[in-house]
Amino acid sequence: MANLSRLPTPVIERWEWQYDGVCRSVDPEVFFPPDSERGPVRQRRELQAKQYCEHCPVLARCREHALMVQEPYGVWGGLTPRERDRILHEPGTVPAPRVSAVSLR
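Predicted structure:
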């Protein structure tokens, strides 16, 4: 569960960037896995989510938010939970964006 104490204060200027996210027009299941999802199925879904992120005008702001509040679930700012965890625990580690041939909807 996310630590709510790290969330920005409820001021519209701190949240309004989310209105411009490409993800707003995509099924949330692309970004957040079902509990039982594992292996290649999960990897394909994450790659598809990252493709949307790649074209998002708020990618950097989304990534900053996810790292700041330590979002525990889903793809945020083009990063999976494992990638965010690695960045937070191994400074200087930033994964290169990878895009596969998975087509956007």
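Summary: The helical segments are 12-15, 39-54, 59-69, 81-89.
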